[in-house]
Amino acid sequence: MILKENQDLTLYNNYRIEAFCKRAFLPQNEDDFIELYTVHRDSKKIILGGGYNVILSKKYYEEDFLLIGETFAQYKVTGNVIEAEAGIEMKKMSELALAHNLSGLEVFYDIPSSLGGAIVMNAGASGSEIKDHFLRARYLDLDDLKVKEITKDEANFEYRNSFFQKNTNKIVLKVWLELISGDPVLIREKMDDIKTSRWAKQPKDYPNAGSVFKRPEGHYVGTMIEKLGLKGFSVGGAQVSTKHAGFIVNYNNATGEDVLNLIKEIQEKVYQEYNINLEVEQRII
Ligand SMILES: Cc1cc2nc3c(=O)[nH]c(=O)nc-3n(C[C@H](O)[C@H](O)[C@H](O)COP(=O)(O)OP(=O)(O)OC[C@H]3O[C@@H](n4cnc5c(N)ncnc54)[C@H](O)[C@@H]3O)c2cc1C
Hints:
This protein has helices at 30-39, 90-99, 115-121, 163-166, 184-201, 221-227, 256-274; strands at residues 2-8, 20-26, 45-48, 54-55, 60-67, 75-78, 81-85, 102-103, 124-125, 128-129, 134-141, 146-151, 170-178, 180-181, 208-211, 234-235, 238-240, 247-250, 283-284. By secondary structure, it is α+β, with helices and mostly antiparallel strands. Flavin-adenine dinucleotide (FAD) is lined by residues 14, 47-54, 68, 86, 111-114, 116-118, 120-121, 123-125, 164, 171-172, 202, 208-210, 283.
C-alpha cells in the first residue's frame, strides 16, 4: 500500500480544482483494501477512481482518500472475456479489446474513467453502456469486510446508476466484461470516429468533468441551457461552456464552491422556464 501525506488532489479531479487531503492511500492489491479498513477503520474515507466525475467542494479534507488507479490495474484476457482490477483506465481497456480483436468497448476509448468508476456510474454513450458487457464483479463489503461477488442481475444497472452508487459501503475490486469477436480494422475505425465526433462537440480547452446533469426524459440538457442564453455564463472561475452548454468548465481557477453555485443558478433558471428539476450526475465530495 502506498501512503501519501498532505496529498495534492488537483491532478486527481478532472475539473483540476485545487484541494488537498491529509492522507491518501493507493492500494496495490485486494489485501491492501482490507488492511486499510482494519488498521485505519476509524477514519472517514473518500473513494476516487479517475476523479473524472467529481466536484471537490472543499479546499482541504481531513478525511482519508482512497485513490483506486494505476497502482491497482492488473488485467487478464481469456477468450472474449477481460477481467481487470478496478483502477485500470477504460481507454486502456478499449485498446486491450482492440489488441485481442474484441468489440464492445469502442465508446470507452473517449470516456475518461477507471473501470470501477464506470461500473459505479454505469458509464456509456451513443446507446452503449458498461452494463451491456458486465458479467460479474468482486467487491469489498465494508459491512463485514468480506470480499463478495455480484452478478449482472444483482448489480441493478440503470441510466448512470448502479447497485454500487446506491450502496457506497461496497468497493468494486475486480470486474469481468464479456465482449464479442470483431474485425480490428472496423473496431479501430469505430474508436476513431467516436473520438472525432465527441471532440467536435465537447469542450477540450478547459478542464471539466463531462456532462453536469443527468438527461431528463424527452429533453436535451445542453439545448435547454443554451436556449436560456447561459452559454458563457459564469460564477467565479466556473463557466457554462461556450461550446456545449451541458458542460461546466474551470475557466479561471474555479473553486468547488464556484462550480456548485453555478449549478444552483442553472437549476433555478431551468426550473423557472421548463418546470424541470435537473439532477446532478457528478458526485459532490
Ligand atoms: C470529458 C469528459 C467526458 C465524459 N463523457 C462521459 C460520457 O460520455 N458518458 C458517461 O457516462 N460519463 C462521461 N463522463 C463522466 C465520467 O467519465 C464517468 O462518470 C466515469 O465513469 C467516472 O469514472 P471515474 O473512475 O473517474 O470515477 P470517479 O469520478 O473517481 O468516481 C465516481 C464515483 O464512483 C465512486 N467510485 C470510483 N471508483 C470506485 C470503486 N472502485 N468502488 C466503489 N466506488 C467507486 C466514487 O466514490 C464516486 O462516487 C465524462 C467525463 C469527462 C471528464
